[in-house]
Please model this.
Amino acid sequence: MSTLAENAVKNCLRIRADDNVTIFCYPHTLALAEELAIECFKRGADALLNLYTDRYYSAYMKHLTVEQLRKPSAFCRGLSEVETAQFSVGALEDPAGYRRVPPEKMAADSEAETEAHAPIRTRKVRSLFLAIALVTRPRAKVYGYNFAAWQRNVRAASEVSSKTLTTTGQKLAGILGTADTLHVGAKGGTDLTVSIRGRRPMIFDGIVDDEKIAAGQLEASIPSGSVGVFPEETSANGVVVFDVPQAWAGRTIRKMRWVFRNGRLTDFDGDAAALMLKKQFDASTGDKDVISAVTIGTNPKAALGFLQNSIVRGAVTVGVGGNDFAGGNNKSSFGFEDTIRGATVEVDGKPIVRDGKLLVA
Model:
């Protein structure tokens, strides 16, 4: 754990003596949070542990009204105005608690959180999410994962070097950055075309360096591994059929279908979990229905079927909603992405992914 913390502090966010660091954690991730704080102190930085609990979250969502939840937190706003870096270490230990939260409350809370943390963008606060903190037995039970297999997969994917991910990412970004049109197809029914002309691809390799900060790419994760691009906002046309199980709010979305016309999501259908997500979508505001990203995974050790499908090498993921937090133009507190099984991607007619296999060395 100390090795993970050292890498996160030293290499991923490159914490300095002048940094004010917030570490968001839960009881089951407290030991990792403490290791992160210790590594920050070794570099002369100030660090704050911000502890949440499952019971705290449940009470927060139960007792506050939609109107109260929509009010931005003064505490969150205050942190956003003084911190220079943050680590996110976990979420609810048992995600079944999310099932008791009405979609309209989720939407209101997300809206308030987005506003409260707005200074993060203008102040260029860098952040890192550590996915190993999500690996809990209650979460595995809720989502039907084999706990040991999931834990092994996250650890293996986390050990892939940033250099490896950067090298593959640069090759893929070099192709996407000079292309005009991108097409995604799959046997399950996906047939989507977007314009990416003039759009700068983003390489997600677990590092937030000065070049990425200047481009507005302030977030990273461990494990990592993908290249994403924000399509031209009015260009998406076609159908996307998602068929890789995707965990969401204590539920698993197994089937979902989106139809895009001129960049906007005009038809949203799927199984019971997908329709519950749609209720949150309906209760949200802003550019919630605008295509936000197309992402191609580059991590050779990650596997489909767990929480981070988008980083799996050759996996193709499509998202809608807000992306301004990563330098895009869409402003909305709602955002969601899902992955297509065995997709083929062509840029200007040339394949770069075929049947889920990345063709870039």
Notes: The chain has a mean pLDDT of 96. The longest helix spans residues 162-176.
